[in-house]
Write a structure and sequence with these properties.
single chain, 302 residues, mainly beta, four-stranded antiparallel β-sheet, binds calcium ion
Length: 302
Protein backbone atom coordinates (compact mmCIF):
# COMPACT_ATOMS: atom_id res chain seq x y z
CA UNK A 1 0.00 0.00 0.00
CA UNK A 2 1.36 3.39 -0.95
CA UNK A 3 1.84 6.04 1.71
CA UNK A 4 -1.00 8.15 0.28
CA UNK A 5 -3.43 5.22 0.22
CA UNK A 6 -2.45 4.36 3.77
CA UNK A 7 -3.03 7.97 4.80
CA UNK A 8 -6.45 7.97 3.09
CA UNK A 9 -7.41 4.81 4.95
CA UNK A 10 -6.95 6.69 8.22
CA UNK A 11 -9.34 9.49 7.25
CA UNK A 12 -12.51 9.81 9.28
CA UNK A 13 -15.54 9.21 7.10
CA UNK A 14 -19.14 10.08 7.75
CA UNK A 15 -22.32 8.46 6.51
CA UNK A 16 -25.62 10.37 6.43
CA UNK A 17 -27.85 8.19 8.60
CA UNK A 18 -30.50 10.86 9.25
CA UNK A 19 -33.30 9.31 7.15
CA UNK A 20 -32.58 5.82 8.52
CA UNK A 21 -32.60 7.20 12.06
CA UNK A 22 -35.97 8.90 11.58
CA UNK A 23 -34.51 12.41 11.47
CA UNK A 24 -36.70 13.73 8.69
CA UNK A 25 -37.17 17.28 9.97
CA UNK A 26 -37.36 19.97 7.30
CA UNK A 27 -37.10 23.65 8.18
CA UNK A 28 -39.75 25.90 6.64
CA UNK A 29 -39.06 29.63 6.70
CA UNK A 30 -42.57 30.57 5.59
CA UNK A 31 -41.38 32.77 2.74
CA UNK A 32 -44.03 35.11 1.34
CA UNK A 33 -44.09 37.80 -1.32
CA UNK A 34 -44.40 40.39 1.47
CA UNK A 35 -40.73 39.65 2.39
CA UNK A 36 -41.25 39.88 6.13
CA UNK A 37 -37.89 40.12 7.88
CA UNK A 38 -38.44 37.09 10.16
CA UNK A 39 -38.58 34.95 7.01
CA UNK A 40 -34.84 35.49 6.68
CA UNK A 41 -34.16 33.88 10.03
CA UNK A 42 -33.77 30.16 10.27
CA UNK A 43 -34.24 28.14 13.44
CA UNK A 44 -31.89 26.51 15.88
CA UNK A 45 -31.66 23.15 17.56
CA UNK A 46 -31.03 21.91 21.09
CA UNK A 47 -29.72 18.50 22.06
CA UNK A 48 -30.33 17.28 25.60
CA UNK A 49 -31.55 14.22 27.48
CA UNK A 50 -35.11 15.26 28.26
CA UNK A 51 -36.20 11.91 29.72
CA UNK A 52 -33.06 11.10 31.68
CA UNK A 53 -32.45 7.72 30.01
CA UNK A 54 -28.82 8.53 29.25
CA UNK A 55 -29.45 9.04 25.52
CA UNK A 56 -29.29 12.52 24.01
CA UNK A 57 -32.53 13.64 22.37
CA UNK A 58 -32.99 16.36 19.73
CA UNK A 59 -35.31 19.37 19.78
CA UNK A 60 -35.81 21.37 16.58
CA UNK A 61 -37.25 24.88 16.61
CA UNK A 62 -39.08 26.41 13.62
CA UNK A 63 -42.12 24.09 13.77
CA UNK A 64 -41.24 22.34 17.02
CA UNK A 65 -40.19 18.71 16.88
CA UNK A 66 -38.88 16.72 19.84
CA UNK A 67 -37.21 13.54 18.68
CA UNK A 68 -36.61 10.96 21.38
CA UNK A 69 -33.50 8.86 21.05
CA UNK A 70 -34.65 5.26 21.39
CA UNK A 71 -31.17 3.82 20.95
CA UNK A 72 -29.65 1.98 18.01
CA UNK A 73 -29.48 5.21 15.98
CA UNK A 74 -33.25 5.56 15.95
CA UNK A 75 -35.44 8.49 16.97
CA UNK A 76 -39.20 8.81 17.48
CA UNK A 77 -41.25 12.00 17.27
CA UNK A 78 -42.76 12.68 20.70
CA UNK A 79 -43.54 16.39 20.25
CA UNK A 80 -47.28 16.24 20.91
CA UNK A 81 -46.97 13.67 23.70
CA UNK A 82 -44.42 15.91 25.41
CA UNK A 83 -46.64 18.99 25.08
CA UNK A 84 -44.11 20.91 23.03
CA UNK A 85 -46.16 21.81 19.96
CA UNK A 86 -45.43 25.35 18.81
CA UNK A 87 -42.91 27.37 16.90
CA UNK A 88 -39.81 29.38 17.71
CA UNK A 89 -36.36 30.36 16.48
CA UNK A 90 -33.99 29.34 19.28
CA UNK A 91 -33.96 26.78 22.05
CA UNK A 92 -31.91 26.75 25.24
CA UNK A 93 -31.97 23.76 27.56
CA UNK A 94 -31.23 24.03 31.27
CA UNK A 95 -32.56 22.84 34.63
CA UNK A 96 -33.83 26.14 35.98
CA UNK A 97 -35.63 24.68 39.01
CA UNK A 98 -32.90 22.25 40.09
CA UNK A 99 -35.19 19.20 40.11
CA UNK A 100 -32.84 17.13 37.95
CA UNK A 101 -35.02 17.36 34.82
CA UNK A 102 -33.74 19.58 32.00
CA UNK A 103 -36.17 22.35 31.08
CA UNK A 104 -36.46 24.25 27.81
CA UNK A 105 -36.63 27.94 26.92
CA UNK A 106 -37.59 28.85 23.37
CA UNK A 107 -37.26 32.30 21.80
CA UNK A 108 -39.18 33.69 18.87
CA UNK A 109 -40.95 36.63 17.29
CA UNK A 110 -42.71 38.42 20.15
CA UNK A 111 -43.31 35.05 21.77
CA UNK A 112 -40.87 33.45 24.23
CA UNK A 113 -41.86 30.34 26.16
CA UNK A 114 -40.42 28.53 29.17
CA UNK A 115 -41.31 24.84 29.30
CA UNK A 116 -40.82 23.07 32.63
CA UNK A 117 -39.92 19.41 32.39
CA UNK A 118 -42.26 17.48 34.70
CA UNK A 119 -40.02 14.43 34.65
CA UNK A 120 -42.75 12.11 33.31
CA UNK A 121 -42.07 12.75 29.62
CA UNK A 122 -44.14 15.93 29.49
CA UNK A 123 -43.54 19.65 29.74
CA UNK A 124 -45.70 22.48 31.14
CA UNK A 125 -45.73 26.02 29.76
CA UNK A 126 -44.75 28.08 32.84
CA UNK A 127 -44.00 31.33 31.00
CA UNK A 128 -46.56 33.41 32.86
CA UNK A 129 -45.64 32.07 36.30
CA UNK A 130 -41.96 32.58 35.51
CA UNK A 131 -42.59 36.14 34.39
CA UNK A 132 -40.40 35.93 31.30
CA UNK A 133 -43.05 36.67 28.65
CA UNK A 134 -41.88 39.16 26.04
CA UNK A 135 -43.26 41.14 23.12
CA UNK A 136 -39.78 41.52 21.62
CA UNK A 137 -38.18 39.55 18.81
CA UNK A 138 -35.76 37.21 20.53
CA UNK A 139 -33.44 34.97 18.53
CA UNK A 140 -31.09 33.47 21.08
CA UNK A 141 -29.95 33.38 24.66
CA UNK A 142 -28.19 31.37 27.31
CA UNK A 143 -28.65 29.97 30.79
CA UNK A 144 -26.05 31.19 33.27
CA UNK A 145 -25.70 31.65 37.01
CA UNK A 146 -24.45 35.21 36.97
CA UNK A 147 -24.84 35.72 40.73
CA UNK A 148 -23.52 32.30 41.78
CA UNK A 149 -26.53 31.52 43.96
CA UNK A 150 -26.96 28.03 42.48
CA UNK A 151 -30.00 28.94 40.35
CA UNK A 152 -29.72 29.31 36.58
CA UNK A 153 -30.54 32.79 35.34
CA UNK A 154 -31.64 33.57 31.80
CA UNK A 155 -30.02 35.87 29.24
CA UNK A 156 -32.12 36.57 26.14
CA UNK A 157 -30.70 38.20 23.02
CA UNK A 158 -33.12 40.40 21.14
CA UNK A 159 -32.85 41.34 17.48
CA UNK A 160 -34.68 44.34 15.99
CA UNK A 161 -37.92 46.23 16.49
CA UNK A 162 -40.19 44.67 13.90
CA UNK A 163 -43.96 44.27 13.64
CA UNK A 164 -46.11 42.85 10.83
CA UNK A 165 -47.20 46.44 10.14
CA UNK A 166 -43.76 47.22 8.68
CA UNK A 167 -44.37 47.17 4.95
CA UNK A 168 -41.59 49.15 3.27
CA UNK A 169 -40.81 48.08 -0.31
CA UNK A 170 -37.13 47.23 -0.65
CA UNK A 171 -35.70 46.34 -4.03
CA UNK A 172 -36.34 47.44 -7.60
CA UNK A 173 -39.66 49.28 -7.64
CA UNK A 174 -39.54 49.79 -11.44
CA UNK A 175 -39.37 46.08 -12.11
CA UNK A 176 -41.44 45.19 -9.03
CA UNK A 177 -38.66 43.02 -7.69
CA UNK A 178 -39.01 42.96 -3.95
CA UNK A 179 -36.22 41.81 -1.67
CA UNK A 180 -35.86 41.56 2.08
CA UNK A 181 -35.03 44.89 3.70
CA UNK A 182 -31.56 45.41 5.17
CA UNK A 183 -31.38 45.23 8.99
CA UNK A 184 -30.16 48.84 9.02
CA UNK A 185 -33.74 49.95 8.33
CA UNK A 186 -34.85 48.57 11.68
CA UNK A 187 -34.17 49.91 15.17
CA UNK A 188 -32.12 47.67 17.39
CA UNK A 189 -33.29 46.43 20.76
CA UNK A 190 -31.63 45.80 24.11
CA UNK A 191 -31.10 42.32 25.50
CA UNK A 192 -32.75 40.98 28.64
CA UNK A 193 -31.40 39.43 31.81
CA UNK A 194 -33.74 37.57 34.15
CA UNK A 195 -32.61 36.60 37.65
CA UNK A 196 -33.91 33.27 38.91
CA UNK A 197 -35.65 33.79 42.25
CA UNK A 198 -35.56 30.08 43.10
CA UNK A 199 -39.33 29.83 43.52
CA UNK A 200 -40.31 29.34 39.87
CA UNK A 201 -40.25 33.07 39.19
CA UNK A 202 -37.73 35.38 37.58
CA UNK A 203 -36.98 39.06 38.09
CA UNK A 204 -36.18 41.24 35.08
CA UNK A 205 -32.86 42.81 36.09
CA UNK A 206 -31.98 44.12 32.62
CA UNK A 207 -31.96 47.76 33.74
CA UNK A 208 -30.17 47.52 37.08
CA UNK A 209 -27.57 45.09 35.73
CA UNK A 210 -26.55 47.50 32.96
CA UNK A 211 -27.54 45.06 30.18
CA UNK A 212 -30.46 47.20 28.96
CA UNK A 213 -28.22 50.22 28.51
CA UNK A 214 -26.76 48.75 25.32
CA UNK A 215 -28.94 48.58 22.23
CA UNK A 216 -27.84 46.22 19.50
CA UNK A 217 -29.22 43.72 17.03
CA UNK A 218 -28.47 40.65 19.07
CA UNK A 219 -28.26 37.21 17.61
CA UNK A 220 -26.44 34.56 19.65
CA UNK A 221 -25.18 34.70 23.23
CA UNK A 222 -22.26 32.73 24.66
CA UNK A 223 -21.32 32.45 28.32
CA UNK A 224 -17.84 31.99 29.75
CA UNK A 225 -15.74 33.37 32.58
CA UNK A 226 -13.22 34.87 30.18
CA UNK A 227 -11.15 36.65 32.85
CA UNK A 228 -11.20 33.87 35.41
CA UNK A 229 -12.63 35.95 38.26
CA UNK A 230 -15.28 33.36 39.08
CA UNK A 231 -18.11 35.40 37.56
CA UNK A 232 -19.81 34.33 34.30
CA UNK A 233 -19.52 36.86 31.47
CA UNK A 234 -21.69 37.10 28.34
CA UNK A 235 -20.69 37.66 24.71
CA UNK A 236 -23.41 38.69 22.27
CA UNK A 237 -23.05 38.71 18.51
CA UNK A 238 -24.77 41.62 16.77
CA UNK A 239 -25.95 41.87 13.19
CA UNK A 240 -24.05 44.62 11.31
CA UNK A 241 -23.16 46.33 14.59
CA UNK A 242 -20.22 45.95 16.99
CA UNK A 243 -20.57 42.90 19.21
CA UNK A 244 -21.07 43.12 22.98
CA UNK A 245 -18.94 41.58 25.71
CA UNK A 246 -20.68 42.01 29.05
CA UNK A 247 -18.09 41.72 31.80
CA UNK A 248 -19.66 40.58 35.06
CA UNK A 249 -18.56 43.02 37.78
CA UNK A 250 -20.33 41.16 40.58
CA UNK A 251 -23.15 42.48 42.78
CA UNK A 252 -25.50 42.13 39.82
CA UNK A 253 -23.73 44.60 37.54
CA UNK A 254 -22.21 44.20 34.06
CA UNK A 255 -19.89 46.45 32.06
CA UNK A 256 -19.80 46.32 28.24
CA UNK A 257 -16.11 45.92 27.26
CA UNK A 258 -16.10 44.50 23.73
CA UNK A 259 -13.90 47.24 22.24
CA UNK A 260 -11.35 47.09 25.07
CA UNK A 261 -11.22 43.30 24.77
CA UNK A 262 -10.79 43.51 20.99
CA UNK A 263 -13.90 41.52 20.11
CA UNK A 264 -16.32 44.26 19.00
CA UNK A 265 -15.18 44.26 15.37
CA UNK A 266 -13.17 42.08 13.04
CA UNK A 267 -9.48 42.82 12.38
CA UNK A 268 -10.31 45.16 9.50
CA UNK A 269 -12.22 47.42 11.89
CA UNK A 270 -15.61 46.72 10.43
CA UNK A 271 -18.64 45.18 12.00
CA UNK A 272 -19.86 41.88 10.68
CA UNK A 273 -23.13 40.04 10.41
CA UNK A 274 -22.34 37.91 13.41
CA UNK A 275 -25.34 35.67 13.17
CA UNK A 276 -24.30 32.39 14.66
CA UNK A 277 -22.90 30.96 17.82
CA UNK A 278 -20.17 33.00 19.45
CA UNK A 279 -17.61 30.42 20.47
CA UNK A 280 -14.97 31.63 22.90
CA UNK A 281 -11.74 30.16 21.57
CA UNK A 282 -9.16 28.76 23.94
CA UNK A 283 -9.43 28.10 27.66
CA UNK A 284 -11.85 30.75 28.94
CA UNK A 285 -10.04 31.28 32.23
CA UNK A 286 -6.54 32.18 31.07
CA UNK A 287 -6.94 35.60 29.52
CA UNK A 288 -8.97 37.97 27.44
CA UNK A 289 -11.02 36.75 24.53
CA UNK A 290 -8.76 36.58 21.48
CA UNK A 291 -11.11 35.70 18.70
CA UNK A 292 -14.66 34.96 17.90
CA UNK A 293 -15.55 32.22 15.49
CA UNK A 294 -18.90 32.84 13.84
CA UNK A 295 -20.85 29.74 12.98
CA UNK A 296 -23.15 29.31 10.05
CA UNK A 297 -25.62 32.13 9.43
CA UNK A 298 -28.46 29.77 10.13
CA UNK A 299 -27.30 28.58 13.52
CA UNK A 300 -28.97 29.94 16.61
CA UNK A 301 -27.62 29.58 20.11
CA UNK A 302 -28.74 26.37 21.64
CA1 LIG B 1 -33.08 10.67 26.31
CA1 LIG C 1 -36.11 21.18 35.84
CA1 LIG D 1 -28.49 32.69 39.75
CA1 LIG E 1 -15.65 36.81 34.65
Amino acid sequence: MSFLLWLASLAIRFEDVAPKAGLTFTLENGATSAKHLPETMAGGVATFDYDGDGRTDIFFTNRHRLLRNTGGLRFEDVTEKAGLSGSSMAAIAGDFDNDGHTDLFVAGVRHNVLYRNRGDGGFDDVTVKAGIGSAEWSVGGAWLDFDNDGWLDLFVSNYVDWTPAFDQFCGDVGHNIRVYCHPKLFKGTANRLYRNLGNGGFEDVSAQSGIAGHVGKGMAAAVADYDGDGLADVFVTNDKLPNFLFHNLGKGRFEEVAFAAGVALVDTGTEMSAMGDGNLLGPPSVGPVRAIKPASPCAMMS
